[in-house]
Amino acid sequence: MSKLDEETRSTKSRKKKRMWREIEAIKDKYKLRKELEDMDMFNEYELSQIDI
Question: What is the pTM of this model?
Answer without folding.
Answer: 0.57
